[in-house]
Amino acid sequence: MNINLSITKKQKLFMDATESEVLFGGAAGGGKSYGQMVDALIFALRYPGSKQLILRRTLPELDKSLVRTGLSLYPKDIYKFNSSTHTGRFKNGSTVDFGYCAAENDVYQYQSTEYDCIRFDELTHFTEAQYIYLISRVRGVNPFPKQVKSSTNPGGVGHGWVKERFVDPSPAGKAFRGENGLGRIFIPSLLSDNRFLADGDPDYKTRLLALPEKEKRALLYGDWNIFDGQYFTEFNSSLHVCTPFEIPRSWRKYRSIDYGLDRLVCLWIAISPDSRAYVYRELCESDLPIAEAARMIIDHTPLCEDIYATLAPPDLFSRAQETGKTKASIFSSQGVNFTKTSNDRETGWLAIKELLQKRQDGSALTIFNTCTELIRCLPALTRDKRRPTDCSTEPHDITHAPDALRGFAIFYARPASAEGEKKRHIWTSDMWEDYYAASENERKYLKLKYGEPY
Ligand SMILES: Nc1ncnc2c1ncn2[C@@H]1O[C@H](COP(=O)(O)OP(=O)(O)OP(=O)(O)O)[C@@H](O)[C@H]1O
Ligand SMILES: [Mg+2]
Question: What stretches in the chain show pLDDT beneath 50?
């Protein structure tokens, strides 16, 4: 049988790499995904009966990219793809499973499986916890090589851990031993490596050149240092992101909003009895007038959910010259009443940093993995060049979700710091009512929250 394929020099390096963990990472269009698929084909043919798993983070991404490439690249007389099981079978008995892990614990669908080779495409879309779990599925008693081979662009939720695992420890192209004692290598990929794309679509590079600076550095030059100057360096998705669970009714719930005509962000945050804040829902919409924004906030809040306070920044409480009305009062007339929070940016960012600190039992702030906008934007914020204690307001579109979180963090941090100074507080009758209705654990939390009463 003759298969006529050409590969680039970098794809050959990737295919020849024998380290346990290999990363092919860099510019968009460097030929990484194609390299994966050719490598998977060669592996399947060289080792009859071998098993491989190829992953993307979501099913639609998988179907649109790798599954299609497999179908067009692999000779039809030796390869059949079953679209209901997402398994590709070769005539020699080798298989390639095409999989995805959209939610954090989707990894458990691979609990009882064994693979000779697992391939992650767009590795930075995965969390470190997913990667670590899945690579434990590489095992088997056969003599075939056992490897984890990944390809990716810089950026994405996993940028930090991927860079730390593959890019930072050793110069590019130089193999090294990871902390687990196994070999790793990072093979950088550049757009100029892929002559097939340069010939077939000569304008592609021009389109990348038109991207905003950071995306351009990542996608055109494959630059891994795009997040230098990252503000929330403590953000770590394996610590700060969790799979959703049902929030008990008794937990206090807040909404925190950031509103401008260009963007509404509303975050729903619940406080557990041991004082952890969980961001459990987000709403992000563009171009909504107030009535529409209020309606959406109400629609996204189930009737049975008691919201203790809806926090909003002070600018929503300033009167418009033309109407004499505040935005807060218009929201209120639509059924959403605000509590004013502070707009002291630096104190607010510090309050978020405080919440992100690692504690013995995890972190004080956890975000449900369904809140994808907040998870995308928070680690992407960079330091302001002139005021390094503040975050940059550029790119503007990533500031809204963190701004909403900041409003909550500064509000929530206030009583706790008062408690730290051992101040005593006058409690209102509502507070006492809460206290008497609470369980022992909740009472501890309430004291933290309100401060010690007189
Ligand atoms: N060896 C090759 N032979 C023919 N075409 C190739 C080869 N390598 C890559 N290509 C083509 O070049 C284009 C870009 O390749 P590919 O999708 O693999 O890049 P990538 O690095 O995965 O890009 P992205 O970062 O956007 O995912 C595709 O159209 C692919 O089919
Ligand atoms: Mg790709």
Answer: 416-421
| pTM (2 d.p.) | 0.62
Residues with Cβ < 8 Å from 402, sequence gap 6 or more? 352, 374, 377, 378, 381, 391
Look at residue 426 in the predicted model and tell me its pLDDT: 65
Asked if residues 140 and 111 have their Cβ atoms less than 8 Å apart, the reply is no
Length of the chain: 454
Half-sphere exposure of 109 (CA within 13 A, CB side): 12
pLDDT given at position 225? 80
**Nearest residue to 40 via CA among 134, 117, 123, 110:** 117
Query: What is the whole-number distance in angstroms between the Cα of residue 227 and the centre of ligand 2?
Result: 21
Q: Which atom of ligand 1 is the closest one to the Cα of 11? A: 1
pLDDT at 419: 39
DSSP H helical ranges for 145-228: 159-162, 195-200, 204-209, 213-219
- Give the C-alpha separation, 279 to 36, whole Å: 37
Tens of pLDDT, residues 204-237: 999 999 988 778 888 998 888 877 678 998 888 7
**Measured over all CA atoms, what is the biggest interatomic distance in the chain, rounded to whole angstroms?**
86
What does the pLDDT read at residue 37? 97
Q: Which residue has the tokens 């995965």?
A: 126
Which residues are near ligand 1 (CB < 6 Å)?
Answer: 6-8, 11, 28-34, 153, 189, 194, 196-197
Q: How far apart are CA 422 and CA 130, in angstroms?
A: 42
DSSP for 254-285 reads EEEEEEETTEEEEEEEEE-TTS-EEEEEEEEE
Residues 186, 167: Cα–Cα separation, whole Å: 6
- Closest ligand 1 atom, residue 197 Cα: 12
Produce one character per residue of 1-35: b if its CB has 16 or more CB atoms within 10 Å, e if not: eeeeeebbebbebbbebebbbbbbbbbbbbbbbbb
Residue from 328, 309, 321 nearest 449 by CA:
309
| Ligand 2 geometric centre to CA of 237 (Å) | 23
C-alpha span between 184 and 166 (Å, rounded): 7
C-alpha of residue 243 to centroid of ligand 2, in Å: 27
Residue 415 pLDDT: 53
Minimal CA–CA distance to 395: which of 263, 225, 285, 256?
263
